[in-house]
């Protein structure tokens, strides 16, 4: 136990290693589970990278000109290695091609290597009988140590997996012992510092229930930065079993979550880590996450073709589904009770609202009436204020204008009388001919413009805003308003009848009507809205 607690202290370093491709370190099972859920969502990205690698290998195999050569075998072997933890059917096809090449080249070692690869994927897929028959067909004596190591490892794995698959009190114990014997044989042929030597040494001790000793090997491996993602996942997944035996679920969940993340990132469709994690999460009562992990395990097991994993999934999946149904039923009952309570509350609330609404209705109507009256009054006041302002400006203007015209008429009268007294009728005619009615009219209109623009200084800008750029009025410096603008200036101060506008501007009524129609047709607003916009132009 002391050794195990020391390993717990080193946990942060182990988790950091498992995520060598990530910039985060995770300190709790919750954060690791969150990371796993994110990684599940990103699984298609990692699988796409795997498929790209496989595509390049396929191109290399297809481009090889010597299909029976050592190069052909090597290339096919690389393709097999890419498939062996990814897809059973494709790996099986590759192993078959390797065996065919090995037979055609009459290389007995390559033949055995091909059969061992066949055995590996069949064992991974849960084909125990086929795995055993393949291994029995191999005569390993007088073969290289590398082949012996693989052979005895596969036999050891075969019996250990068979024990785990049966999981009974009659056969599993014997299978475990037989598996340990073959693992012992395999360890003789692995280098002492190799991953295989450390992993299978730890696995053998774990199966012998020597958990503290086994933990040392797994801890050593998890601090080895040379491990691949798949090797790290395999180690963490097996290591989690030690914590489960010690009833340390939290630590076991962390390792299984880390292993599942590494599996996804390496596109390993071996679902044992996420399957065991789903079972532990389910035992903790987290049905939602357990369901998500089980669904991922089912998808991967189907993709790879792992039959024994499907059997294991079929054992836990109904439990999770039943729990989901139980929770849904409990939630339904709670929802019914909650709904009844809420309904009663709403009925009481509605009655109270109706009573209060009835009491306040007259008050609200009175308030609204007062508010409406105030708004109308404000509008009336604003219009009256504007009308007074217009009257004040134009009355003052016309008084001044009348005074000027009276002075000018008086001067003209005296001048004519003098000429007539002097008996100079021709001079009278000259004086009268010098009177420019058109100029006087234009001056009158310009004076009207000056007063109007004092009251409505933004009129020209606001008027032009109702037209496209090319239709905007561009006035000369010495001109205040043109005829178009004067028509609507008169409308703005309240002179809207065409007859009055025509009389003031000395045009016919039809001409005024034509002007207004042409101007409105050019506008960017509708004809109905044009005059409304004009009337909304603010005075000072």
Task: Write down the domain tally.
Answer: 4
Helix content, binned percent: over 70%
Weakly predicted, low-confidence segments: 1-27
| Major sheet summary line | none
Q: What is the name of the CATH topology of the largest domain?
A: Serine Threonine Protein Phosphatase 5, Tetratricopeptide repeat
Can you tell me the overall shape? elongated
Number of continuous helical runs: 24
Q: What is the C-level CATH assignment of the largest domain? A: Mainly Alpha
What percent of residues are in strands?
A: under 5%
- What is the tally of beta strands? 0
Provide the structure class.
Answer: mainly alpha
For CATH, the homologous superfamily of the largest domain is named as Tetratricopeptide repeat domain
Q: Measure the end-to-end span.
A: 91 Å
């Amino acid at each position: 136990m002391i050794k195990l607690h020391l390993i717990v202290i080193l946990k942060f370093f182990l988790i950091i290693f498992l995520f060598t491709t990530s910039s985060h370190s995770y300190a709790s099972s919750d954060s690791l589970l969150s990371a796993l859920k994110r990684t599940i969502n990103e699984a298609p990205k990692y699988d796409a990278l795997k498929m790209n690698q496989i595509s390049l290998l396929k191109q290399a195999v297809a481009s090889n000109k010597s299909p029976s050569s050592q190069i052909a075998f090597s290339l096919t072997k690389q393709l097999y290695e890419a498939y062996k933890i990814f897809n059973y059917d494709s790996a099986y096809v590759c192993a078959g091609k390797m065996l065919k090449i090995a037979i055609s080249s009459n290389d007995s070692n390559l033949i055995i290597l091909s059969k061992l690869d066949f055995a590996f994927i069949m064992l991974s897929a849960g084909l125990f009988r086929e795995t055993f028959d393949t291994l029995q067909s191999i005569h390993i004596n007088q073969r290289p140590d590398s082949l012996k190591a693989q052979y005895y490892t596969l036999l050891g794995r075969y019996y250990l997996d068979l024990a785990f698959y049966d999981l009974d009190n009659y056969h599993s114990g014997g299978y475990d012992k037989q598996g340990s014997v073959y693992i012992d044989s395999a360890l003789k042929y692995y280098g002492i510092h190799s991953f295989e030597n450390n992993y299978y040494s730890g696995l053998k001790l774990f199966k012998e229930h020597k958990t503290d000793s086994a933990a040392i090997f797994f801890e050593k491996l998890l601090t080895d930065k040379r491990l691949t993602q798949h090797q790290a996942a395999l180690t963490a997944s097996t290591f989690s079993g030690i914590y489960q035996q010690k009833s340390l679920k939290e630590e076991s969940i962390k390792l299984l979550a880390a292993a599942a993340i590494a599996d996804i990132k390496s596109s390993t469709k071996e679902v044992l880590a996420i399957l065991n994690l789903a079972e532990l999460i389910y035992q903790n009562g987290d049905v939602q996450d357990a369901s998500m992990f089980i669904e991922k395990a089912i998808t991967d097991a189907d993709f790879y073709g792992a039959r024994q994993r499907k059997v294991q999934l079929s054992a836990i999946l109904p439990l999770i589904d039943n729990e989901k149904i139980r929770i849904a039923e409990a939630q339904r009952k709670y929802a019914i009770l909650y709904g009844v309570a809420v309904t009663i509350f709403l009925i009481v609330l509605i009655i109270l609202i109706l009573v209060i609404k009835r009491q306040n209705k007259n008050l609200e109507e009175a308030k609204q009436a007062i508010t409406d009256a105030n708004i109308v009054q404000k509008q009336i006041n604003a219009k009256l204020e504007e009308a007074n302002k217009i009257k004040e400006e134009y009355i003052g203007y016309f008084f001044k204008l009348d005074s000027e015209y009276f002075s000018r008429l008086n001067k003209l009268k005296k001048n004519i009388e003098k000429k007539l007294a002097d008996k100079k009728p021709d001079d009278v005619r000259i004086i009268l001919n010098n009177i420019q009615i058109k100029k006087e009219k234009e001056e009158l209109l310009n004076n009207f413009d000056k007063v109007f623009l004092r009251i409505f200084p933004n009129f020209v800008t606001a008027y032009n805003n109702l037209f496209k750029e090319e239709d905007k009025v561009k006035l000369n410096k010495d001109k205040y308003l043109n005829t178009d603008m004067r028509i609507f200036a008169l409308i703005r101060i309240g002179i809207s009848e065409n007859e009055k506008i025509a009389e003031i501007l000395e045009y016919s009524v039809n001409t005024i009507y034509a002007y207004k129609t042409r101007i409105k047709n050019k506008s960017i607003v509708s004809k109905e809205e044009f005059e409304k916009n004009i009337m909304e132009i603010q005075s000072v």
